[in-house]
Amino acid sequence: MSDLPVKMRGVWLTGHGDMDKLEIRQDIPLPVPGTRDVLVRVTAAGVNNTDINTRTAWYSKKDGASDDAAWAGTPIKFPRIQGADVCGHIVAVGSDVKDERIGERILIEPCLREAHGLELETPWYLGSECDGGFSEFIVVAARHAYKIESNLSDIDLASFPCSYSTAENMLTRAEVKARDRVLVTGASGGVGSAAVQLAKARGAKVTAVAAPEKSEALLRLGADYTLPRDAEYNAELGENSMDVVIDLVAGDKWPMVLEVLRPRGRYAVAGAIAGPMVELDVRTLYLKDLSFFGCTILEPEVFGNLVRRIEKGAVVPIVARSFALEEIRDAQSFFQEKSHVGKIVLRI
User: What is d(CA 114, CA 96) in angstroms, rounded to the nearest whole number?
Assistant: First the structure.
């Protein structure tokens, strides 16, 4: 590591709050890999809802208190480098990692079962419980750095890890298969647009819910049908018409997604952009024999499966716009406008 800098450029999250908590630094100490780690030079990193949710303490169930505001329900340790979507190149390895890995282009699995040389009882998320990719370098356990061989650019590849692995995990947990009828809410966002593609790759018939002006883009991604966000699902689709719901929205319309699920249907959720509090008629749940899946921690096979799908060209990147690392506040503002389809990526 003698030819590497001692300090690096990056963005510190210095506390919960507004954009002023994002501090661009030139003097962050270079992280040092442990025996089972790799040091990655970051080339691109995607922006996600989780970055904003963590900054604003949205995950807290105590009215924005800071003592349960991380993915794992624990306090965030500040300063924290965020960024769960990372593409880069391995530049150094720990003593227990083969030197031949130096030079590999990699994607980092965002759900970590190992960190700081320890097996984790509760997995951590990159950029939440430990530092992420909004910096020039990152250290991660070698097992979570997946070599990828692709003609796609680093910016394109950085659009995949968090959103697509979340979507693939939801589909895995809900056991989506060929000919399943799948409803995807919030389909124009990063996870939603990934779910549309990945469900189609499994041979499912997909109905995507999004703003009308985003309908054509979703049809090009493979959606069979689209619905506007204000649609009455029962009237448009019919009761008991869906095998699976992939939900990223929740909110006031949530009871309707259960009404359109068929008996023994499967419901998977990994977001609540319309609001986390919903009204459940428990009779619907048990009389229809529904299965519910809350999806955060990735199943062990998910990220490897995703990398293989990327390498085979089974999914395509959707980069709405890229920003320089120093433009992170502009990137998050653009992200929150929700006028785009797909991902926003920072150039590191």
Answer: 14
Whether 47 and 119 map to the same domain: the answer is yes
Q: Based on the structure, what is the number of domains in the chain? A: 2
Q: What is the pTM of this model?
A: 0.89
- pLDDT tens, position by position, 109-147: 999 999 999 999 999 999 999 999 999 999 999 999 999
Residue 280 Cα to chain centre, angstroms: 26
Q: How do residues 62-103 score in pLDDT, each as one tens digit?
A: 665 555 556 566 788 999 999 999 999 999 999 999 999 999
Token representation of residue 267? 């419901």
**b/e for 118-154, b at 16 or more Cβ within 10 A?**
eeeeebbbbbbbbbbbbbbbbbbbbebbbebebebbb
Residues 102 and 173 grouped into a single domain: no
Query: Would 137 be classed as within a structural domain?
Result: yes
Question: Looking at the structure, do residues 79 and 188 belong to the same domain, yes or no?
Answer: no
* CA–CA separation, 19 and 134 (whole Å): 15
Q: Which residue range(s) make up the domain with 260?
A: 163-294
- How far apart CA 52 and CA 77 sit, in angstroms, is 16
Domain-embedded: residue 223: yes
